[in-house]
């Protein structure tokens, strides 16, 4: 199986506070990984470090993606290389329409001028699949969107930009049952042999639809246990307290 | 994140705006300002007697009035050397083909006749001090709509012009209003009879070609009861080494239940002192909508004023100001609520970069009679670097208790968070910044007619291009 | 005395509005009296001789002439809080006569100072109460000043206050302004120090012909400096309020934040509210916000209270009181709080 992401001994701090304290993680093409853990364990930090958020400082270790060391790469270069992050709290971008935004992103990532008509068609298809009101294509990115609509907009971008690795940072949080189902189905449609998904969550709602190959428990900046899908149930029964001793 | 990259913005290539024609004219008044010059202008323009009195009285007011103490530095403006009246070598034409080739090519480059063919009901073009071209669709003429240059109106519709002439902006208002009263020439006149809806915009384009000249056009629009019209004004000038002055006056009369939209894209060259006055009085149930883009000039003082005198009158102001190197753009708007149930919305955005200064100066006054008035003001300022300046100077005066008023202002730079979000989607930092700047002014550009929105976006792209290139 | 121009706007605007300053004459010649009482640790309080230099010689006060005259004629009190000390000083002004005084506070590094400033009293005839407060707040020092003005409505009340903040200085000012016929309050806060912080809240309540003319300049010079201005109040009868608030971000005030909010409740058709919230900015890496609102009592609130059995007048009283109460509650002195609350209730 082809290796897609390899993280070695990663230490990350935010404003001089150490959050990740030595993470090793390998993700192959075709796999679905889940990182679970308590609030403040460092889950979002891991996502942001892979994506390259400048507010997160890598103190030690390396991130190799698709055979290239990207530890020092700028965030847009990582996006071009095929990493996508669905934000926990997607911000609004006044003045830029959803359509214009995604089309510009797609043109930049593919390096090709995306033709307007074909793009409109694709956008409409993908929005329909997500039960996303197509009039939102002409609205400003996330401006006045509900929490659920913002998350749908993230999954819409993922579907169109078609990355090699999709990181879903708490995509299920704050969503009602129907929205979780729609988003999960969207991720399932996207997932195939050639890409991988990294799900970050602290509850298991989203995992009822997305079957993970690997489950990692992150406590206090370290992965303390890795297992298969059955680990989700184990956590549900025992709670995170049972793993704190391992940290 | 304290150490961060700045958007490096090269000074704008103004392209077609800067192409100047040979300076030819059929008549030019001497530089400076004397009674003789005023008499000469008057005689040359063959105006009625009362206009000479008006001009001379204005000159007298001009001579004794002081320059306001709060305006930006205008010491670069040498009134002694400003040519107040430059008559181009042509009489006004109603057929585009008859306009002389050099003047025509100027407007061609600016895209004016093309716009007329596609999206306008009437067009006027002023070159230096005189209108050189005017046209209006035949069916509008049949409905009684008048759209012509103000000189023609002064002869053919003298009673109307005289009735309204500088009643909204009296020469005593301020020094530049007095100057305007003394030396005005050119401009447009629009009269829309009661109930007539003009669905396609009328447009006037003002081009100042002569070096060291002043442009003092007078625009008068009267929208009678229940009528509706959209008027577009565009301004530009090539850059010369000597300073130019623009002191126009725009007087708008919106009667009961009438609607006027007044759109402007101002792109004077950066040696222009733009001391312009615009004012509108609105009757019962009437609406004035201002859409204003200020990009050019060295110094601008421009605060379109809406006076809501009729019950339920409404004013809307949407403006964007972009100040680059060497520019001091002091702009904003004034709204005066004088009647019950009047409403107003003000939405202003400014951008400053490369040492430019963008000032929002505003007034919101709710008088004692304006019970149940509602007003909102929103000002946002974006600074693209730390050598520029951005000030907000609003005045809010409330003189009765039954009002609902909100005012908000924000100053800042493009958020790092927004840049990061765009970059996670593969967009480069420079392009992300440019997109966010365009997004910042989008609520305004979408209010503009298409060709003006395109022009504004081009201006912004030109301004930002150095960073993307 | 001839007319003076008070509380001049740092950047003037349209002249015809007549809001760039407020003209007024000083009422009566000022003289110092014994009606000023200063309580606290005697070791830190001393006399401030006439003509003592200003902490900032460029400070002009509400009016230059008035301030210069005050400095050259009035004696006052100097309070010097040593490094790391904790002190409380109480000042009471009983306006039984014309008053002119100065209070100069130097708060050394790491010290804590709380000042309780209380004004009341008055005469049948109009008279003048004028004083000048200066605070030099050194690095890591903390100052809290709680001022309550319950002067009679015969008094012309003028306060000049200047504050200098060094690195990490932390200042909290609370004003409860209820009394006075004509109040000119001028505040200039100089955030020179890195990470210096100031919060200034002013509650006012005006009726009859009262005037509250408030000017405040927040000058951000230090990096990461923070300021927050909040004025809120209510006006009835022919009362008038002018608020001239300026947030001035100087070049180099990187990562600073400033906010100002002016909220005015209008209770009668004859009141007048003027608001000039200026934002001046020469540094891009700052966050500056201002908001102003003016209006009637929220009809939903009124409806809610009336549905609980209160009459309209009672409900209005509750709403006005509930607006000002949170500021009064922060005074921390039971007797003064009670006096302030009584004054509020008597007015509405």
Please explain how this structure is put together.
- The complex is a heterotrimer of chains A (247), B (469) and C (348).
- Chain A has eight helices and twelve strands.
- Chain A is α/β, with parallel strands linked by helices and 247 residues long.
- Chain A has one domain (3-244): P-loop containing nucleotide triphosphate hydrolases (Rossmann fold), CATH 3.40.50.300.
- In chain A, a hairpin with a 2-residue loop joins β4 (56-65) and β5 (68-69).
- Chain A is globular and about 55 Å long.
- Chain A starts with a strand and ends with a helix.
- In chain B, α1 (35-45) runs antiparallel to α2 (49-64) and α9 (416-423) crosses α10 (429-445).
- Chain B starts with 26 loop residues before the first strand and ends with a helix.
- Chain B has eleven helices and 25 strands.
- In chain B, the strands form three sheets. In chain B, strands 5, 6, 8, 9, 11, 12, 14, 15, 17, 18, 20, 22 and 24 form a 13-stranded mixed sheet that branches.
- Chain B folds into two domains: 15-302, no CATH class; 415-469, no CATH class.
- Chain B is an alpha/beta fold.
- Chain C is mainly β.
- Chain C contains four helices and 20 strands.
- Chain C has helices at residues 64-73, 299-306, 312-328, 334-347, and strands at residues 3-6, 22-25, 36-39, 45-48, 76-81, 86-94, 99-107, 112-121, 127-137, 142-151, 155-165, 170-177, 182-191, 197-206, 211-220, 226-235, 240-249, 256-266, 272-281, 286-295.
- In chain C, the strands form three sheets. Chain C has a nine-stranded mixed sheet, covered by helices on one side. In chain C, strands 4-5-7-9-11-13-15-17-19 form a nine-stranded mixed sheet, with helices on one face.
- Chains in contact: A-B, B-C.
- β24 (389-398) of chain B pairs antiparallel with β19 (272-281) of chain C, so a sheet runs across the interface.
Please supply descriptive tags for the structure shown above:
heterotrimer, A: 247 residues, alpha/beta, Rossmann fold, 6-stranded mixed β-sheet, 4-stranded antiparallel β-sheet, 12 strands, 34% helix, globular, C: 348 residues, mainly beta, 9-stranded mixed β-sheet, 20 strands, 14% helix
Q: SSE layout and pairings?
A:
The complex is a heterotrimer of chains A (247), B (469) and C (348).
Chain A: E1 3-14, E2 17-28, E3 32-37, H1 43-51, E4 56-65, E5 68-69, H2 75-81, E6 83-86, E7 93-97, H3 98-110, H4 116-129, E8 140-141, H5 147-161, E9 165-169, H6 177-190, E10 196-201, E11 214-219, E12 222-227, H7 230-238, H8 241-244
Parallel strand pairs in A: 3-10, 3-11, 6-9, 9-10
Antiparallel strand pairs in A: 1-2, 1-4, 4-5, 7-8, 11-12
Helix pairs in contact in A: 3-5, 5-6
Chain B: E1 27-28, H1 35-45, H2 49-64, E2 86-87, H3 101-109, H4 112-119, E3 122-127, E4 130-136, H5 138-142, E5 146-149, H6 150-156, H7 158-164, H8 175-183, E6 188-192, E7 202-207, E8 214-215, E9 218-223, E10 228-236, E11 244-246, E12 249-254, E13 259-267, E14 272-275, E15 277-282, E16 287-294, E17 299-302, E18 305-308, E19 314-323, E20 328-337, E21 343-352, E22 357-366, E23 373-383, E24 389-398, E25 403-412, H9 416-423, H10 429-445, H11 450-468
Parallel strand pairs in B: 3-7, 6-9, 7-10, 8-11, 9-12, 10-13, 11-14, 12-15, 13-16, 14-17, 15-18, 16-19, 17-20, 18-20, 19-21, 20-22, 21-23, 22-24, 23-25
Antiparallel strand pairs in B: 1-2, 3-4, 5-6
Helix pairs in contact in B: 1-2, 2-8, 6-7, 9-10, 10-11
Chain C: E1 3-6, E2 22-25, E3 36-39, E4 45-48, H1 64-73, E5 76-81, E6 86-94, E7 99-107, E8 112-121, E9 127-137, E10 142-151, E11 155-165, E12 170-177, E13 182-191, E14 197-206, E15 211-220, E16 226-235, E17 240-249, E18 256-266, E19 272-281, E20 286-295, H2 299-306, H3 312-328, H4 334-347
Parallel strand pairs in C: 5-7, 6-8, 7-9, 8-10, 9-11, 10-12, 11-13, 12-14, 13-15, 14-16, 15-17, 16-18, 17-19, 18-20
Antiparallel strand pairs in C: 1-2, 3-6, 4-5
């Amino acid at each position: 199986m082809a290796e897609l992401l390899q993280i070695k001994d990663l230490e990350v701090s935010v404003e001089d506070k150490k959050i990740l304290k030595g993470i090793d993680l390998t993700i192959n093409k075709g796999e679905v990984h889940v990182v679970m853990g308590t609030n403040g364990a460092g889950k979002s930090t891991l996502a942001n470090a892979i994506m390259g958020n400048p507010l997160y400082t890598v103190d030690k270790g390396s991130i190799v993606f698709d055979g290239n060391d990207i530890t020092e790469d700028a965030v847009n270069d990582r996006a071009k290389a095929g990493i996508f992050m669905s934000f926990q709290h997607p911000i609004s971008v006044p003045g830029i329409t959803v359509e214009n935004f995604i089309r510009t992103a797609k043109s930049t990532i593919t390096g090709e001028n995306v033709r307007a008509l074909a793009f409109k068609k694709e956008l409409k298809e993908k929005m329909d699949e997500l039960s996303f009101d197509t009039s939102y294509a002409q609205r400003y990115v996330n401006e006045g969107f509900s929490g659920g609509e913002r998350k749908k907009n993230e999954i819409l971008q993922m579907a169109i930009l078609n990355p090699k690795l999709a990181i879903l940072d708490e995509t299920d949080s704050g969503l009602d049952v129907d929205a979780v189902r729609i988003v999960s189905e969207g991720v399932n449609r996207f997932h195939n042999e050639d890409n991988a998904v990294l799900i970050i969550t602290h509850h298991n709602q989203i995992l009822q639809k997305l079957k993970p190959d690997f489950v990692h428990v992150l406590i206090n900046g370290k992965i303390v246990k890795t297992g298969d899908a059955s680990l989700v149930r184990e956590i549900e029964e025992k709670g995170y307290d049972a793993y704190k001793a391992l940290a | 994140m304290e150490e961060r990259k700045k958007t490096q913005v090269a000074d704008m290539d103004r392209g077609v705006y800067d192409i100047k024609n040979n300076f030819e004219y059929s008549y030019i008044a001497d530089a400076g300002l004397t009674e003789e010059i005023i008499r000469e202008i008057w005689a040359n323009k063959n105006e009625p007697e009362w206009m000479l009195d008006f001009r001379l009285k204005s000159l007298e007011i001009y001579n004794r009035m002081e320059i306001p103490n709060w305006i930006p530095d205008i010491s670069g403006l040498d009134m002694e050397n400003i040519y107040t009246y430059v008559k181009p070598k042509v009489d006004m034409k109603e057929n585009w083909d008859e306009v002389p080739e050099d003047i025509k090519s100027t407007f061609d480059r600016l895209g004016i006749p093309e716009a007329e063919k596609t999206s306008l009901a009437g067009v006027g073009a002023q070159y230096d001090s005189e209108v050189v071209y005017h046209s209006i669709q035949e069916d509008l003429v049949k409905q009684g709509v008048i759209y012509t240059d103000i000189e023609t109106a002064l002869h053919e519709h003298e009673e109307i012009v005289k009735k309204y002439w500088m009643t909204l902006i009296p020469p005593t208002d301020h020094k530049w209003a007095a100057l305007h009263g003394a030396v005005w020439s050119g401009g447009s006149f629009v009269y829309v009879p009661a109930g007539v809806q003009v669905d396609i915009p009328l447009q006037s384009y003002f081009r100042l070609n002569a070096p060291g000249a002043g442009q003092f056009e007078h625009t008068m629009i009267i929208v009678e009861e229940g009528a509706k019209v959209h008027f577009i004004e565009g301004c530009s000038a090539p850059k010369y080494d000597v300073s130019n002055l623009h002191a126009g006056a725009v007087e708008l009369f919106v009667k009961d239940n009438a609607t006027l939209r007044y759109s402007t894209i101002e792109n004077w060259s950066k040696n222009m002192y733009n001391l312009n006055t615009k004012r509108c009085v609105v009757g019962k149930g009437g609406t004035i909508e201002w859409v204003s883009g200020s990009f050019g000039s060295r110094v601008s003082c421009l605060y379109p004023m809406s006076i809501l005198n009729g019950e339920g009158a409404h004013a809307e102001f949407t403006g964007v100001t972009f100040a680059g190197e060497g520019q001091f753009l002091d702009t904003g708007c004034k709204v005066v609520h004088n009647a019950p149930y009047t409403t107003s919305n003000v939405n202003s955005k400014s951008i400053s970069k490369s040492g430019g200064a963008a000032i929002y100066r505003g007034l919101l006054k709710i008088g004692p009679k304006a019970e149940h008035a509602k007003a909102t003001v929103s000002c946002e300022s974006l600074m693209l670097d730390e050598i520029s300046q951005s000030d907000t100077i609003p005045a809010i005066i409330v003189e009765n208790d039954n009002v609902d008023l909100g005012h908000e202002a924000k100053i800042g730079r493009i958020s790092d968070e927004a840049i990061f979000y765009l970059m996670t989607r593969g967009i480069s930092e420079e392009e992300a910044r440019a997109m966010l700047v365009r997004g910042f002014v989008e609520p305004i550009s979408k209010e503009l007619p298409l060709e003006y929105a395109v022009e504004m976006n081009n201006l912004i792209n030109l301004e930002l291009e150095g960073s993307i290139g | 005395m001839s007319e003076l121009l008070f509380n001049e706007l740092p950047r003037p605007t349209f002249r015809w509005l007549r809001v760039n300053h407020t003209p007024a004459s000083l009422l009566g010649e000022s003289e110092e009296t014994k009606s000023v009482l200063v309580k606290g640790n005697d070791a830190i309080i001393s006399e401030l001789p006439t003509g003592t230099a200003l902490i900032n010689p460029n400070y002009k006060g509400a009016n230059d002439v008035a301030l210069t005259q005050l400095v050259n004629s009035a004696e006052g009190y100097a309070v010097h809080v040593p490094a790391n000390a904790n002190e409380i000083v109480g000042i009471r002004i009983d306006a039984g006569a014309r008053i002119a005084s100065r209070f100069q506070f130097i708060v050394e590094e790491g010290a804590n100072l709380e000042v309780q400033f209380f004004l009341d009293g008055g005469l049948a005839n109009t008279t003048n109460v004028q004083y000048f407060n200066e605070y030099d707040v050194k690095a890591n020092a903390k100052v809290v000043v709680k001022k309550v003005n319950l002067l009679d409505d015969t008094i012309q009340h003028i306060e000049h206050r200047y504050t200098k903040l060094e690195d990490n200085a932390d200042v909290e000012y609370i004003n409860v302004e209820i009394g006075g016929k004509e109040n000119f309050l001028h505040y200039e806060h100089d955030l020179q120090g890195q990470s210096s912080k100031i919060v200034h809240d002013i509650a006012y309540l005006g009726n009859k012909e009262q005037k509250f003319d408030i000017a405040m300049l927040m000058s951000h010079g230090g990096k990461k400096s923070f300021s927050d201005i909040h004025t809120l109040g209510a006006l009835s009868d022919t009362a008038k309020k002018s608020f001239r608030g300026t947030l001035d971000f100087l070049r180099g005030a990187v990562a600073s934040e400033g906010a100002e909010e002016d909220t005015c409740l209008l209770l009668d058709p004859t009141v007048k509210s003027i608001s000039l919230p200026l934002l001046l900015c020469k540094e891009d890496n700052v966050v500056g916000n201002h908001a102003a609102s003016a209006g009637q009592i929220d009809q939903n609130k009124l409806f809610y209270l009336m549905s609980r059995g209160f009459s309209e007048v009672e409900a209005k009283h509750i709403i006005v009181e509930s607006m000002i109460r949170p500021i009064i509650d922060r005074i921390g002195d039971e007797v003064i709080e009670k006096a302030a609350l009584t004054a509020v209730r008597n007015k509405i």
